[in-house]
Design brief:
Blueprint: E1 2-7, E2 12-21, E3 24-34, H1 41-59, E4 63-67, H2 75-94, E5 98-102, H3 104-112, H4 119-129, H5 139-151
Parallel strand pairs: 1-4, 4-5
Antiparallel strand pairs: 1-2, 2-3
Length: 154
């Protein structure tokens, strides 16, 4: 099974592709889709959609795992994250991917076994679990790897 993990955002959308073969799980790719601040939001969302479509075509995932939207203090940030999340869900629907939504708590527990783990603890455990030489960078890519990890077995 191949899982595409998405950490949505309008400026940076993190992605990670994990492949599970029996009990072996490996990271095939990770990175960020970035969009320029000075262009219209609609154009930024279109760029995210195009890049996600390219990733789906290249890696042919069975599942898209994405973090559930949580309510943030900054409503403008929550709105743009929600829009980027919607684009990812649209791309998944276009390619008939199963969608798994995970909460930040589920991501933390899946990676560390502890629901109050901080970002650094989660990243370090993802490095260990996937047997990586270093933590994926930028943070959005590492977060996407943790989100994909949380989707395994769901």
């Amino acid at each position: 099974m191949t899982i595409l993990g998405i950490d949505p955002g309008i400026g940076r959308t993190g992605y990670a592709v994990l492949q599970q073969d029996k009990n072996k799980i490996r990271l095939l790719a990770c990175g960020c889709i970035t969009t320029p601040v000075k262009i219209a939001d609609a154009t930024r969302l279109l760029e995210i959609k195009k890049d996600l479509t390219s990733l789906i075509k290249k890696w042919k995932p069975d599942v898209l795992c994405i973090e559930s939207l949580f309510f943030a203090a900054n409503s403008k940030t929550a709105m743009s994250v929600g829009q980027a999340r919607g684009v990812a869900l649209l791309a998944a629907a276009e390619y008939n991917l199963k969608v798994i939504e995970v909460t930040p708590l589920q991501v933390k527990i899946s990676a560390t076994g502890y629901g109050k783990a901080d970002k650094r603890q989660v990243q370090k455990m993802i490095q260990t679990l996937l047997k990586l030489k270093k933590i994926p960078r930028p943070d959005d890519a590492a977060d996407a790897a943790a989100i994909a990890w949380a989707g395994i077995g769901r």
